[in-house]
Design a protein that fits this description.
This protein is 28% helix and 17% strand. The chain is an alpha/beta fold. It folds into three domains: 3-319, TIM Barrel; 337-548, Rossmann fold, CATH 3.40.50.1700; 591-716, Sandwich (Immunoglobulin-like), CATH 2.60.40.10. It starts with 6 loop residues before the first helix and ends with a strand.
Length: 717
């Protein structure tokens, strides 16, 4: 039985926490509510730092396995993989924590409360932090987030492996430069239909231990002090029992940016009154004064501390190490051969094949003497990592991966080609100062692999050191600097060209789609990323990723960045035709889906069962994702939405039966008041390997099978 289901055990931890907190003075309790909580020696409470990161591996705490960035892992469309990754990260976190505790090290980033995952909806491709998320779809985000949290928190009956945190609650997706003052205005319909479902799934299905508030306001209320979000929805409607943490220094924004309070004392009182328990920052130290001035009761302080110590009890921090199974995990688990193998496998699963004209890929090294590798991301370690990253013991760039794979069998010639975003590589050189080198390499090569895109120095969080665009957001969807000019030069050489895109978000690569025969989206593929890319380009594995975001043709199609309405946003609401659709991705193999069935043609409270058979009809072992979409056939409803998925791995000629349950909620939508129900009428259910839009059909030549089902009476969900 999982800890989140063991109510008796949880009650014991809550009782122990209450007994401990009851012995503390007001000042002691207040100091426990900042992220770097000090020791209370008289009560044998050790110091603890709540601030720890594990977005795609243990971060900022020395060497650890660096998995692909979250957006890349989302592209795998693989729930079980996410659980395995979460478990691996938790294993390394425990191993490092155990070793650090032996040395009395309780510094920042060295605890067990991991501020991950980020389940915000990537509603606009310009948002710099979008690569921390699982993409633009609430259902996919929820499924992957649930599995990741389950992996992190473990399945021990008594203790959590680590404590996960769903962030940033809620309605947060830029602009970064305005986040400390911005008011996200959102309808109840969009709030409950798009922005909240993933958080609800993590709370109610995965039992996530913590929730982090966002910087912005939502409909006038600062998220870290929002009665609507924290009190009414999170704890009231969803029954959340864990603790809430503020984003870092977000409480000071109440009076300095949002101007909803007049002082720090008022700000901390508002936050705690509405359910924020721990402050990333130190402003909560004003809570003593807030109690003295009657702005908040000591009982509220006490309750917050009880939640915090309940979490620490659940992690086994106040029990003998020999009683806690996770305390036995040795440091040797960190960066082990097993972890490196898993990382390579995960990286391979994230790659999305966007185009493969005339089967150019996979390349055959027996037919090549020289390969040109060109581009600013070919040997760029930063393009492997994304942000909130750990430290890998080895970084394998795409260039290094190709060199290691081809060895002396094929010569690899390299040119940076151009700077990632500037007009020259050498500060004293002329603009486009590597173009003659590029032409020479193209002339000498049998095939050219061009590595372009972005890195975390171009897209990221506001204030990230070295971020070229300062705020972290992208000004547009174009390849920066001279990259497209470089690509045109390579294409004009007449040699076979493969484009490897490395980015954490969608790019408008319209020229590439028209002129480049093969395009592989590699995201930020982690410490083993270059090896995975090389193995994929040469057919050691087949691409299996699917796009978790829409690739647009340009920003002209997008509403204003500050507009939080979902109208004409993401595949669920867009009216135009994308460059590459959500859910799209090619394979080196081929698959046939047959025998599609739905268990009933009438929707009841029991929902429906959808089944089909899928066969690998190609010559290569590969994986494919069965995707189920649902469309309500009435005016003013979203486009067909993803409501079921299953990753299937098949050898050549192998066939497998797939059965997926569509609960009644799969057919539900929210009204203008946010009430979720299934309305009477017709619904289309689509069964296939991609969404049922025209662009996907044009790119793949396939059309999913569709069924019409009927709801006869309204059902509240």
């Amino acid at each position: 039985m999982l800890l989140r289901e063991n109510r008796d055990q949880l009650s014991k931890y809550e009782e122990r926490a209450k007994e401990l907190v009851a012995q503390m003075t007001l000042e002691e309790k207040v100091f426990q509510m900042v992220h770097n909580a000090p020791a209370i020696e008289r009560l044998h409470v050790p110091a603890y730092n709540w601030w720890n990161e594990a977005l795609h591996g243990v971060a900022r705490a020395g060497v650890a396995t660096m998995f692909p960035q979250a957006i890349g892992m989302a592209a795998a469309f693989d729930e079980e993989m996410m659980r395995e990754v979460g478990d691996a990260i938790a294993t390394e976190a425990r191993a490092k924590f155990n070793a650090q505790q032996e040395s009395g090290d309780s510094d920042i980033y060295k605890g067990l409360t991991m501020w991950a995952p980020n389940v915000n909806i990537f509603r606009d491709p310009r948002w710099g932090r979008g690569h921390e998320t699982y993409g633009e779809d609430p259902y996919l985000t929820g499924r992957l987030g649930v599995r990741f949290v389950e992996g992190l928190q473990g399945d021990d009956e008594k203790y959590m492996k680590v404590a996960a945190c769903a962030k940033h609650f809620a309605v947060h997706s830029g602009p970064e430069e305005l986040r400390h003052e911005f008011n996200a205005k959102v309808s109840d319909q969009d709030l409950y239909e798009t922005y909240l479902p993933a958080f609800q799934a993590l709370v109610q299905e995965a039992g996530v231990e913590a929730v982090m508030g966002a910087y912005n306001r939502v409909n006038g209320e600062p998220c870290c002090g929002s009665r609507t979000l924290l009190h009414d929805i999170l704890r009231g409607q969803w029954g959340f029992k864990g603790h809430v943490v503020s984003d870092c220094w977000a409480i000071k924004d109440f009076h300095m940016g949002h101007h909803v309070t007049a002082s720090g004392v008022e700000s901390v009182a508002l936050a705690v009154e509405n359910g924020c328990d721990v402050n990333c920052g130190n402003l909560f130290l004003y809570l003593t004064q807030a109690v003295q001035e009657g702005l908040i009761s000591e009982e509220k302080i006490t309750r917050a501390c009880e939640r915090l110590f309940t979490t620490r009890m659940k992690l086994g921090m106040f029990d003998e190490a020999d009683q806690v199974s996770y305390s036995k995990i040795p440091y040797e688990e960190v960066d082990s051969a097993k972890m490196r193998a898993l990382n390579l496998e995960v990286a391979g699963r994230t790659l999305v094949l966007l185009k493969n004209e005339n089967g150019l890929l996979p390349l055959d090294k027996k037919k090549l003497k020289t390969v040109g590798v060109i581009g600013p991301n070919a040997n760029n370690r930063k393009a492997l990592t994304g942000n909130y990253e750990g430290t890998a013991s080895r970084y394998v760039t795409v260039l290094e991966g190709l060199q290691d794979y081809l060895k002396d069998e094929v010569r690899v010639m390299f040119s940076e080609g151009c700077h990632l975003y500037k007009d020259r590589v050498s500060a004293l050189g002329r603009p486009n100062d590597r173009i003659s080198e590029v032409k020479a390499i193209c002339k000498a090569s049998d095939a050219v692999i061009v590595c372009l895109g972005l890195d975390a120095g171009l897209e990221g969080e506001e204030g990230d050191e070295g971020n070229e665009f300062a705020s972290g957001d992208k000004p547009d969807l174009n390849l920066p600097g001279l990259q497209e000019k470089l690509l045109k030069t390579v294409c004009e050489s007449g040699k076979p060209v493969v484009l490897v895109l490395m980015s954490g978000s969608a790019l408008a690569v319209n020229y590439a789609q028209e002129h480049v025969p093969a395009i592989l989206q590699a995201w930020y593929p982690g410490g083993q990323g270059g090896r995975a890319v090389a193995e994929t380009l040469f057919g050691e594995r087949s691409p299996e990723g699917k796009l978790p975001v829409t690739f647009y043709r340009g920003t002209e199609e997008l509403p204003a960045f500050t507009d939080y309405s979902m109208q004409n946003r993401t595949y669920r609401y867009m009216k135009g035709e994308p460059l590459y659709p959500f859910g799209y991705g090619l394979s080196y193999s081929s698959f046939a889906v047959s025998g599609e069935k739905v268990s009933a043609r009438e929707i009841t409270r029991e929902g429906l069962t959808v089944s089909c058979r899928i066969k690998n009809t190609g010559n290569m072992a590969a994986a494919e994702t069965i995707q189920i979409y649902v469309k309500a056939e009435r005016p003013n409803t979203p486009n067909a939405q993803l409501k079921g998925l299953k990753k299937v791995r098949l050898a050549p000629g192998e066939e497998q039966e797939v059965t997926l349950e569509l609960g009644v909620q799969a057919f539900s939508l929210c009204d203008e008041h946010g009430a979720r129900r299934v309305e009477p009428g017709e619904y289309r259910v689509y069964v296939g390997t991609a969404q049922p839009d025209g662009r996907t059909q044009a790119l793949t030549g396939k059309k999913p099978t569709e069924f019409t089902v009927i709801c006869k009476s309204c059902m509240e969900c």
